[in-house]
Write a structure and sequence with these properties.
It is built from eleven helices and five strands; from the N terminus they run H-H-E-H-H-H-H-E-E-E-H-H-H-H-E-H. It has 327 residues and is of the alpha+beta class. It folds into three domains: 100 residues; 122 residues; 77 residues. A five-stranded antiparallel sheet has the order 3-2-4-1-5. Helix 8 packs antiparallel against helix 10. It is elongated, with a radius of gyration of 36 Å.
Length: 327
Amino acid sequence: MESEQKTREVDLAQVFMAIGRSIHNFFINIAKTIFWLIRFGLDRWRLMIVFSVVGLLWGAGSFFDQAMYQSNMVIRTNSARSYEMKDMINNLSAYFESTVPTVKHDLATKFNTDSVTVSKILSIKPHFIIDYNKDGTLDEVDVHDDHNPRDSMNLIDLTHLQLEVAVTDPMVFDKLRDGIVYFLKHDPYLVASNKARMDDLKEKIEMIDREILKLDSLQNTMYFREGNMPNLQLGNAQIKLEASKQLFYNDKINLLEQKKYLKLDYDTHGEIITIISDFAPGVKPENKGLFTMTKRSIMMFVFTYSIALLVFGIKKGLKNYAPEHIE
């Protein structure tokens, strides 16, 4: 038993030693790679200067790109679920990607605007808004569209969407907002669905009004019936009469509370969509500036540097391979 225990202890120690050596070798290899890259750059400093110049030129080219302004708008989808309206807006992507003039003209017609305005619109991307933990709060926008529909804890909100748009002229935001509203308000499905929703709300409000009148009538009838009873000079009789006045008070309050929310929905959200948060004016292009230039310069430098490493690595491998196999 003791020998077996010692064997296990020795084996466990060897395992930890092997893990330690692996970690040590891993960091040593990283350090060697870094030193090799530095040496490569120092040995070929002229080539490194060329790579740097190419990267700077590529980054500076961002100042000559077409300006792009981005902004967001949050809408309440009154007459359809958010996923239905998301699909409708996503179908517009084909219009923005096309360069055919007739397609741009069709989009201008759908937005009730001119072709010049449409030509300045780069994209419209609808995103779900996620409700974490089912608490009814709009927590985060799914900007990457990677929400898992099987996630039973974090749900998409069915009544709100965020629209992310990109344009080349910040003065287009107002026309774009009006165009989106016009497009959705003239969709036959949404028009029919909203009409049915409004009729249903109106019928529910009228039904509650009738129920309130019935309660008032019944309350008055019972009040006067109690009032015709002889008034006793006892305090308990007075208490009984006051209690009869409150007979349907709670029922009426509940109905008025229901009516308040239905009336709010009817008056405030009577249209197909409600704009919760409008586009903010884009005062700064998203694809210009020192940060964008630096990012593009570094990306181009890394790309050209990687290509050079690959080429010189293959060249060195061929030189080592050739003397042994050419003969």
